[in-house]
Design goal:
The protein is mostly helical and 249 residues long. Helices cover 78% and strands 0% of the residues.
Length: 249
């Protein structure tokens, strides 16, 4: 009679299930490793956070750039000028320059996002913090920030200017008051936009500074604890050496 035919024998299905459960446990443990308190200040966890931040920036810049560049192209193509044209040539030149800059800036941001985002998505979808060093987000940090700035800051400013000059081109022959009204309305909006951008970046820099100072204080506290532990260890060793050198008569 075979030993494996008893109830205590090995079941291939159960063995495979046990291996699958072990694999799932290891994967789950690896995915949740970054949530433990011991790994919050590690270099891998900080790089993992930067990875997700870069991913979010590239996604936002790609969507914004594709949308606004499409609007600019449609505005330029669908614009119809009257044949007896009284629009100054300087207005048309400014309109052509702003439209070209708007499309070029957003296309550059879209190209950077399209090239870098798949490499970051491949690492993020694995949910493995140990593979964060394989992502190019650290090396291509300046390209990511350039795409983010072109899409959100410079691109939006050019889009506001595009709206203003488009109103002049569209309404100059019909009603100059409408063109002036659009410019008057856009001027305070432009100031509000710039004020928010400056306030946002200053707040972001202040937050990063506070987090850096907090990290430095934590490192100094750990250094003091380590030094205090070394002093206590040396003191204990000195007492033990003294006691071992005493001879009982």
């Amino acid at each position: 009679m075979s030993v494996w035919s008893t109830s205590g024998g090995l079941d291939p299905g159960k063995t495979f299930k046990a291996k699958g459960d072990t694999t799932l446990y290891k994967r789950s443990h690896q995915c949740k490793m970054s949530q433990s308190g011991d790994d919050l200040h590690s270099s891998q966890y900080l790089s993992w956070r930067k990875l997700h931040l870069s991913r979010a920036k590239l996604k936002a810049s790609s969507k914004t750039s594709a949308l606004l560049s499409g609007f600019a192209m449609v505005a330029m193509v669908e614009l119809q000028l009257q044949t007896p044209m009284t629009i100054p040539s300087s207005v048309l030149v400014v309109f052509a320059i702003i439209t070209t800059l708007l499309v070029a800036v957003h296309m550059l941001a879209l190209m950077i996002s399209t090239c870098i985002l798949p490499n970051i998505e491949a690492i993020c979808n694995l949910d493995a913090i140990g593979l964060v060093h394989e992502s190019p987000h650290e090396r291509l940090h300046w390209y990511i920030e350039t795409a983010w700035a072109f899409s959100t800051l410079l691109g939006l400013l050019l889009f506001l200017a595009e709206i203003a000059i488009l109103c002049w081109v569209k309404f100059y022959d019909i009603n100059k008051t409408a063109a002036w009204s659009a410019s008057v309305v856009l001027i305070p909006i432009l100031f509000v936009f710039l004020a928010f951008a400056i306030h946002f970046y200053r707040s972001l820099v202040a937050h990063k500074y506070e987090m850096t100072v907090s990290g430095i204080r934590e490192l100094e506290r750990l250094k003091e604890q380590i030094e205090q532990g070394d002093i206590e260890h040396n003191r204990v060793n000195g007492v033990n050496d003294l006691l071992s050198g005493v001879h009982i008569v």
